[in-house]
Amino acid sequence: MEGKFPKIKIVISGAAVTTPCRPDIHKIAYEIGKELAKKDILILTGATTGVPLWVAKGAYENGGFVIGISPARSYKEHIKVYKLPTEYHHTILYTGESYSGRNILLIKMGDGVMFICGRMGTLNEFTIAFEEEKPMGVLLNSGGTEKYFHDIVVTAKRGRGKIIWEADYKILIEKLIKLIIKERRI
User: What separation in angstroms does the CA of 26 have from each of 31, 118, 124, 143?
Assistant: First the structure.
């Protein structure tokens, strides 16, 4: 029986602390969330602060659907131990896997991953997504560890991966969605 594909799920990977990012990153992240909401994309975040939260806010406030994947075991641990936000998410799933375990689950849950700026966790998610052969979109010139991604791919000598490199977030979103749809075809 042939059915309709479920909604496309895009993971947002980006710096939880935005100091290494370009100065207008909050505005860009919000606009990315808004654009993804317009396209009816289900957004997955690490239920954290910074870039992922701004994307979540943009989507949430514009009719998008946002799910957070938390490193914590429970709501209480999410708030008290990890000190992570709950706003701008329709639901948060608690993994109990700490940050590194959460990162693996988060990346595996998405149909594709968008990278916006970054620090160590984003770098970790980038290598997981590359290893898992996920469709990936990198927002060029967004700051932080994003500037190392291309060198990592070249140095690894494992092929080019399924990566779109783009400085314009609207073009990046369009190309990433097309790549995800192409990958879904049986």
Answer: 9, 13, 22, 12
If you write DSSP's letter for every residue of 70-90 in order, what string do you get?
Answer: ESSSSHHHHHHTS----TT-S
Return per-residue pLDDT of the chain as tens, 186 residues: 455 667 999 999 999 999 999 999 999 999 999 999 999 999 999 999 999 999 999 999 999 999 999 999 999 999 999 999 999 999 999 999 999 999 999 999 999 999 999 999 999 999 999 999 999 999 999 999 999 999 999 998 888 889 999 999 999 999 999 999 999 876
Q: Is the pTM of this model over 0.85?
A: yes
State the virtual CA torsion across 57, 117, 129, 170 in degrees, nearest 10. Answer: 60
Q: Spell out the domains of the chain, with CATH numbers in brackets.
A: 11-184 (3.40.50.450)
